[in-house]
Amino acid sequence: MSEGRSLPLGAVYENRGINFAVHSRIAERVEVCLFDADGRETARIALPGFTDDIWHGFVHGLRPGQRYGLRVHGPYEPTAGLRCNPALLLLDPYARALAAPVKGAPDQFAYVLGAPEEDLQLTDRDNGHSAPQCRVVRSQFDWGDDKPPRVSAAETVFYEVHVKGFTQAMDAVPEALRGTYAGLASAPAIGHLLRLGVTSVELLPVQAFMDDLRLVEQGLSNYWGYNTIAFFAPEPRYATRASQAQDGGVDEFKAMVKALHEAGLEVILDVVYNHTGEGNHLGPTLSLKGIDHAAYYRLADDVRYCSDVTGTGNTLDTSSPPALRLVLDSLRYWVQEMHVDGFRFDLASALGRDAAGDFSWRSPFFAAIAQDPVLSRVKLIAEPWDLGHNGYQLGGFPAGWMEWNGRYRDTVRDYWANADGSLSGFAASLCGSADLLEPRRRRPTASVNLVTVHDGFTLADLVSYNHKHNEANGEDNRDGENHNRGWNCGAEGDTDDPAILALRERQVCNLLATLFLSHGTPLLLGGDELGRTQRGNNNGYCQDNEISWFDWERAARHQPLQDFVRDLIALRCHLPVVRPIAWQRHPAGTTAQVTVHWYSVWGLAMNVDEWNDPAVRCVAAWMQSASPTDASVLLLFNSSADEVTFTLPTDATENWVLRLDTRDWQVWLTGDSPFEATPTDGAANAEGDDAEGPPAVEGEIEGRTYTLLAHSMAMFTSQGPRAQEGQP
């Protein structure tokens, strides 16, 4: 045993031994406990070195694979914000792998459970025999010529997916690989992603997380994973058995990333740095709380309590140097060692709070990211809110960041649910939320447009339920969002009414077409293209079962929907006019890429009264391209309950070709129309037409009309040089 060195933090194999380094300003002694493969403690070693608040030591002869944990001796004074308890074995915050998934247990608490809060007694019961353990890793994975795909923002299509849920019921994947990193890397899984045309796979949390005690006692689990406990370690429950036993899933995760990269797909991690699984002052002590509570967590004015802007009981304090270093070191590790391409930050407003607790785009976290030569080059995506004061910060993040656009979700849902007064918000969302982003010189691509995501209804449920049905979660249906902005189209849940089913199909098409034809960066919830349902459960965080898993048998019955999504993405890819990277009024004074004109159902420019009329449900948008070689787009929207005949805009002089009408599942990608030119004296596609493809609308525009069914939309493109060559 020698003092070793204070950096890097964590357990690092080098020079035929392992160097341990742990930050704790308040500790009086830090011990490393070593365990054998059966979980029995074999040695307890006090770290001899202490440099700049870091305890460190080098143990000769230890090898990769060594299991270990920490014990921190120091003050337990909750009234001073100090919570050390050497009876509890702790996880190393820098552990690269865990020995097993972490599940809540009564012996993880620093006090005896069951006593009133004012009478809590510090426990001296040792939990080393059952506490989670870390594992030393020395990966020698061969990355070969792996390179990041670096998909541009304008070309990006995000696909939010759960590692386990994606392949757990996919029969085409070998049974041993289902629900694992290797399963996601399998040919059937990647093949599905490539057929859709998505570019960036956004994984729900894969950093090691825990099932809290309440879920364990109810026989449930933390399926989503938003309860991180080890920021460097991949979640071991997603590794195959062999990989979990070998290195906790590290190399299997790398192989997954490499396979996705070879297919041209980016890997984005949904990361939870705003809080940990240790909960509030009454929560378990598993790592940071017992190492140096006040150095890592934000404390309330009464330091017995945590400041909680996350709704989980604690908030990581990124204005504190040790906590900020932990987050940045972890992020760099996932980019440099694990080769991921970016991050979606859960409750990102919590990370942007300064020492006073106020959100600022100049906060230490944002400043550190901006100057970091590694992190500033990857995709950075914010969930731009938390539960604290001034926490909703949509549009308020620094340049270079993308943001989940919750307003887009709400306004698009409201419009297609036929809500009064929803038109102006819908139009703003279709145009990339310029009113929020343009004044701050953010690009249109900064808006990550979404209609559904993991929390909330799936797309199929959004059009099938007015109310949540979360009884399976064991909270008497109290959990989950109450105001979902959905519409069941006339019946709650399952129905065999053909009219209702047809309307639901049309609504699904409306929402998907709006998503992929809006300015901004689209995000598709994985499974929506398969008609995935959670049977009305809008908060499946604890449902690791058929409620949440992809139903691939159902998917086979929804092949037309998969084709529709595939063709929408292809159409978007070939139409620069729907994915601009600059606004109409460019700050440099250059010519706008796209100009959007708005028209009433009569083909006249929308006026103020029409925009402000809460009863208006119909509108047309002409996305006019400045490039003579790029097609312009005409969109017709009707969210009303009546069939409506539009007069096409009189000042749009293009020859138009129909690309989609949501009365059908089909998107027509080629510019050649299978129809003869259609006269202009009536509805171009009235019910009963015998034709089998899209009607062409050619010749003079003036006076021409097109009829939309109730609750439907249509899209046309101008017939320019690209279309004439048979290209979209």
Structure description:
This protein has 728 residues and is of the alpha/beta class. Helix content is 21%, strand content 19%. It has an eight-stranded parallel barrel with strand order 13-14-17-18-19-20-21-22. Strands 23-24-25-30-27-28 form a six-stranded antiparallel β-sheet, with helices on one face. Helix 10 crosses helix 11 (423-430). The longest helix has 20 residues, at 498-517. The protein is elongated and about 85 Å long. The N and C termini lie far apart (69 Å). Mean pLDDT is 92; it is low at 671-703 and 721-728.
- The number of distinct helices, counting runs of at least 4 residues, comes to 18
Average pLDDT rating: 92
Percent of residues in helices comes to 10-25%
What class would the helix/strand composition place it in? alpha/beta
What's the topology here?
Layout: E1 10-14, E2 17-23, E3 29-35, E4 41-46, E5 49-51, E6 54-60, E7 67-73, E8 76-77, E9 82-83, E10 97-98, E11 102-103, E12 134-135, E13 158-161, H1 163-167, H2 181-184, H3 187-196, E14 200-203, E15 207-211, H4 213-217, E16 228-234, H5 241-247, H6 250-262, E17 266-271, H7 288-296, H8 321-336, E18 342-345, H9 364-371, E19 379-382, E20 402-404, H10 406-416, H11 423-430, H12 434-437, E21 447-450, H13 459-462, H14 498-517, E22 521-525, H15 552-557, H16 559-573, E23 594-599, H17 608-612, E24 618-625, E25 633-638, E26 644-647, E27 656-661, E28 696-697, E29 705-708, E30 712-718, H18 721-724
Parallel strand pairs: 11-15, 13-14, 13-22, 14-17, 17-18, 18-19, 19-20, 20-21, 21-22
Antiparallel strand pairs: 1-2, 2-6, 3-4, 3-7, 5-6, 7-12, 8-9, 10-12, 15-16, 23-24, 24-25, 25-30, 26-29, 27-28, 27-30
Helix pairs in contact: 10-11, 14-16
